[in-house]
Amino acid sequence: MNYHLTAFIMGYVLDLLLGDPFGSFHPVVWIGKLISALTGKLLQENDSPDKKRLKGKILVIIVITISVLLTGFCLILAYKINRIFGIAVEAIITYQCLATKSLYTESMKVYHALKETSLEAGRAAVSMIVGRDTASLDEAGVTKAAVETVAENTSDGIIAPMLYLAIGGPVLGICYKAINTMDSMIGYKNDKYLDFGRAAAKLDDVVNFIPARISAYLMIMATFFLGKGYNTVNAIYIFKRDRFNHPSPNSAQTESVCAGALGVQLAGPASYFGKLKDKPYIGDMLRTIEIEDIKRTNKLMACTSILCVIICSILILAVEGRF
């Protein structure tokens, strides 16, 4: 556990310093290639819905098994070579499970595009981090999309993997990332993936259920430390009222806190693949959303992640019997 805490802290610091590694060095890239290869082998258009669901479950089992075994093997081998080398490998895998800097960097690209270039540049930047259609978004729409992305991904990109890393180290952390990646690739409710991706989508909901709520409470706590510009009372109120205003049981948990803390209205109708979806709003429009809210949301995300690191570190020490 002592080595685990060292690697845990080092991994978080590496994420803050380096952000996501690009290309084939990221384990999510390998997991994604495995999912694509298995999807190509398993998914057949003429399969019945029941058969597609069965094959989807098979894919989930294979991806998780391979991801966990390879991670475990790498860690065992690394620690057998040398304890310092083992800590280094564990720290690197930990860092690759987190997305704090990349979330900040990508959202700030939207901020700088809107602030310094043009609305068109802002649309292009936000299209890289959201799934909705962005071609017709106005400045407020682009800003809202960026804010929502940071708020939602504070949970599944930072806090959730951090919690799983604290509980089970890189093995459980990579297991979570595998599930999250499967959901992002095949968890769509469209004709192609509705049945095949059901197991992945449901499992993602399950593994994010508790972390999403912990993330929301940590985000509420973070508003205490950020002072002016963050309304704690309204964050609690909107969280209680709007935390289920989303098709997913988890996505609106942190979005509702963010909307309440900033006093803005998020979500609402949005276009996906040319079709308008009538989604409920989250929060009240106490004021119009503005570009600076991207920065404010990033501060909220950063403070939430720091609180989680502190709590996870205390838990690790408590399990070890040193706290």
Automatic annotation (TrEMBL):
UniProt-annotated location(s): Cell membrane
Entry superkingdom: Bacteria
GO BP terms: cobalamin biosynthetic process
Mode of membrane association: Multi-pass membrane protein
Pathway info: Cofactor biosynthesis; adenosylcobalamin biosynthesis
Membrane-spanning intervals of the chain: 58-79, 158-179, 300-319
Single GO cellular component term: plasma membrane
Pfam family of the protein (one): CobD_Cbib
An example molecular function term from Gene Ontology annotations: threonine-phosphate decarboxylase activity
Entry keyword annotation includes Ubl conjugation: no
Alphabetized UniProt keyword annotations: Cell membrane, Cobalamin biosynthesis, Membrane, Transmembrane, Transmembrane helix
Function of the molecule: Converts cobyric acid to cobinamide by the addition of aminopropanol on the F carboxylic group.
HAMAP family linked: CobD_CbiB
Protein name in UniProt: Cobalamin biosynthesis protein CobD
Source species: Pseudobutyrivibrio ruminis
Gene designation: cobD
